[in-house]
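#struct-help
A.M.: can someone run this one for me? Single chain, 255 residues.
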Amino acid sequence: GILDESSIEKIAACRTGDGKPFSIYLQATERHIHFTPFRIDDRYYGYFVTNITDYEETANKEHFFKNIKALNNNAVLFRLEENNKHIPVWCSDGFVKIMDGTYDEVMELLQLGPIATIHPDDVQLVEEALDIKNFGVSGSAVTIRKKTLKNRYKWVNIHYSLVEDFHERYLYCTYFDVSLLKEHEAQLESMYEGIYNDFHRMGRDMLGIFRVNLTRDSIEEINGQDLYDSDFHASSYTEATRLRAENYPIVAEQK
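D.P.: on it. Structure tokens below:
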């Protein structure tokens, strides 16, 4: 009769005849048969092999998508096709909020590709950032104006990352709304321009006026009707003040 029976189950990595890797689920059974009257003493092995490559890829892809969604970024995931077409796969709630719409509205808009809602003056910047040849180790980044579903432009900083897996390529895009920073930047530029104009206007009526960076102790610009040579050659504002003081004829004024 059958003296013993044993079996194993295992997932194994294999290769096809042309060297392509694939995975199998292996079930193997060994039976030892010993029957004295007929002098039978043999061992038999049976194998059941199932190709699970597709199953593994599907499971890994689902795990990949799950991790992408768990990052909780203002993000969009595109699948890249051979004709360089960007197929939207998913977008986050944060990105939907930036775009002033619903998930379905935003996904429909994304069908037009990553360039469609970019300000015309910024299109070239985005095209260069999307060119994979320009990707560094961590991808590429650009700050541009993007139109929302309410037809208003927002300043956004976009970071592009390339993910190559599952015999496919994906573009992971994260968006940061920097509109407020841009507004503050514009206000600072306007204020600086006003100071600059005031500086030159006052210079026509004053003996000497200095624009000084106190943090660096440096003179950034000078103007006026009665400037000393030392004002132009001093290595710092402190030195310029000392050299000017030495030229005052009254000792008390020097101090």
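A.M.: thanks! Residues 1-5, 31-40, 48-53 have pLDDT under 50 and may be disordered.
D.P.: also worth noting: The first helix runs from residue 53 to 70.
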